[in-house]
Specification:
- The protein is mostly helical.
- The protein is 50% helix and 0% strand.
- The protein has helices at 17-32, 46-58, 64-72.
- The longest helix is centred in the N-terminal third of the chain and has 16 residues, at 17-32.
Length: 76
């Protein structure tokens, strides 16, 4: 069951979120006239496997201490 199904006047979404979310995001962005720079794919597809590899290679863990130090340097 979708967590959104518990919200009043929501539409329950039944299915694999990894499959449904990109479709929903694509349709909503089109309706809003927004071009998406990145879209996810189900992990079992070739595009999904490539995306997962890209994430493993390119995405790093955030260092909260370093983020705080850098934020203090920003002029307010």
């Amino acid at each position: 069951m979708s967590g959104f199904a518990r919200l009043e006047s929501s539409i329950p979404v039944v299915g694999d979120l990894g499959v449904l979310w990109p479709v929903i995001a694509h349709n909503v962005s089109g309706a809003l006239g927004i071009e998406l720079d990145f879209i996810s794919y189900p992990q079992e597809t070739e595009q999904g496997k490539e995306m997962r590899e890209w994430i493993v290679e390119k995405v790093n863990v955030l260092n909260m201490q370093q983020m705080r130090e850098q934020s203090r340097k920003i002029d307010r």
